[in-house]
Amino acid sequence: MKYNLRFIAAVLLALFLIPCIVLAGSKAIKVGIDSGKAEITLLEGKAILEKKADKKKINLSKGDFLEKGDRITTGKKSRMELKLPDGSFLRFSELSTFELTEVSANYKEKRRNISVNIVLGKTWAKVSKLFRKKGRFAVSTKTAVAGVRGTDFSMDVNKDNSAVLKVYDGEVEVSKRKEEAPASAAPPGIYTNPVPIAGPRPITMEQWTFIVGKMQQININPDGSASPPFRFNLDKDLSEWVMWNRMRDKQVQEIKKNMRNKIKEGSTDSAPPPDVPPVPAQ
Fold first, then answer.
1. For residue 201, how far is the Cα from the chain centroid?
2. ∠ CA 4-9-12, rounded to 5°
3. How do beta strands 111-126 and 136-140 pair?
């Protein structure tokens, strides 16, 4: 009789635990598919994180994770590399300030929502091509927005809000950033005297949009106006910052290639997606 009671108790316990195990497994898979964090894969020097919620400032380290709303500033003689959840990489030079306004990716649906606002400094982007048809990847400044699919480009933002964007592979759609509409003077639901409403207006250079192709650059002025894209000379462009980033890009490509080969050979069952490679320490 005691044996039967023990057996029944064991069966009931198993029936209770199985759903918990399944739910835990599903939750882990969901985190892997839809991630809302960016990882610091390289940090030379110092970088400070300012949390949006409490404005608290935190010293960052390699391996830390950043999320939506975080504002980061790199120190003197410092560099930072971020691995975004869609497998893209962003790098920032010294004395750069940026904010992660959106940072999410869903591998199951091949959809992403990445948006980074560059306040100041130099940025290099190697954007994953895996999500090129779905979702959004945008890098913005105070005066312009660059919409990207899969490409390599750099953006330099100066103190006067002028910016220079150069495309090394693929193409980028750059447009003037829309100004936020002013708040209405009257509260919702309360109407004042009739006010004339402006009719349709023709599109002018005030609402410019340019497609910047491979080996082209666009200069954006402090007032938000821009000159048409033009080709730049790669030999003259090979600064230490550019050469360092091109070297890092080659390292990332080599890691991706090795990872794909391992997956093809079936040597690993739990490898990350090919566009989300680990980056070796320097």
1. 34
2. 125
3. parallel
**What CA dihedral angle connects 212, 161, 247 and 46, to 10 degrees?**
-160
Is 70 found in the same domain as 18? no
Task: Supply the pTM of this predicted model.
Answer: 0.73
At a CB cut-off of 8 Å and minimum separation 6, what does 25 contact?
Answer: none
Query: For the segment 8-62, what is each residue's pLDDT rounded down to a tens digit?
Result: 555 444 444 444 433 333 333 333 334 789 999 999 999 999 987 787 899 999 9
* The pLDDT value given to residue 52: 78
Q: Is residue 184 part of a domain?
A: no
Residue 220, helix vs strand vs coil: strand
The first and second tokens of residue 202, run together, are: 């023709």
pLDDT of residue 35: 74
Cα dihedral 64/68/70/72 (nearest 10)? 70
128: containing domain: 36-178+206-265
Q: Give the C-alpha separation, 18 to 104, whole Å.
A: 31
Q: Are 50 and 22 in contact (CB under 8 A)?
A: no
Residue 50 lies in a domain: yes
Q: Classify residue 145 as left (phi > 0), alpha (psi -120 to 50) or beta.
A: beta
Q: Is the same domain home to 28 and 98?
A: no
Structure tokens at 48: 């400070």
Contacts of residue 177, defined as CB under 8 A and 6 or more positions apart, other chains included, come to: 140, 141, 142, 143, 144, 145, 224
Name the one residue in this structure whose structure tokens are 């500033």.
73
pLDDT digits (tens, 9 = 90+) for 133-180: 678 899 999 999 999 877 899 999 999 999 999 999 999 999 998 865
